[in-house]
Specification:
mainly alpha; 61% helix
């Protein structure tokens, strides 16, 4: 009797090398979900607020003007999250930087320093960059989680804002009223 040859069993196909359709490739991209969310929200607001001039260039420009700073901030925070870290002090540093600008440009009669706006913005930016560098150095030197270090920074800058604003609880005091016709130089 002749030996019967059994064909080798076919190896199961690996789904990682399986051919995907173009639609499946497009839908698996994370940015497609974000774009779909934006489109859905825009359509919803276009329907609800159509009588209030939502679909206009002026409204679009206004929305983009308000969204641009958040987008810039989101890029930096996203890069940290991709690296496995995050910064809880970002919001308080932004607020404190605004307070630094306010104190520097407030006239000396109002308790400030009377600086011009652009040098004050530069000092505030340098402060924010130095704070971020300091937080990063602390995380690297101590090997503490960024959560702990930046939580401490968050609480510290919140307290400094209250101190700098001469605040009574959450109400800001000591800020002079400036009329809309005056320009601080």
């Amino acid at each position: 009797m002749a030996a019967e040859t059994i064909p080798p069993a076919a190896a199961p196909a690996d789904e990682r090398v399986r051919e995907k359709s173009t639609l499946s490739k497009v839908l698996s991209r994370p940015e497609v979900g974000a774009l779909a969310g934006v489109v859905i929200v825009w359509v919803l607001f276009a329907i609800v607020a159509s009588r209030h001039n939502f679909i206009s260039w002026a409204t679009t420009a206004s929305i983009l003007n308000r969204a641009a700073p958040l987008g810039i901030l989101a890029v930096a925070v996203a890069l940290l999250m991709i690296a496995g870290e995050f910064d809880l002090s970002v919001g308080s540093i932004i607020g404190f930087s605004g307070m630094v600008i306010m104190v520097l440009v407030t006239p000396t009669t109002g308790g400030g320093f009377g600086w011009a706006l652009w040098p004050a913005v530069g000092i505030s930016l340098l402060f924010a960059l130095t704070t971020g560098l300091f937080n990063g150095a602390i995380v690297i030197a101590t090997k503490l989680p960024s959560f702990i270090v930046t939580l401490g920074g968050f609480l510290g800058f919140e307290g400094l804002m209250l101190l700098l604003a001469n605040a009574d609880k959450t109400a800001v005091g000591g800020v002079i009223q400036i009329d809309s016709n005056s320009v601080i130089r």
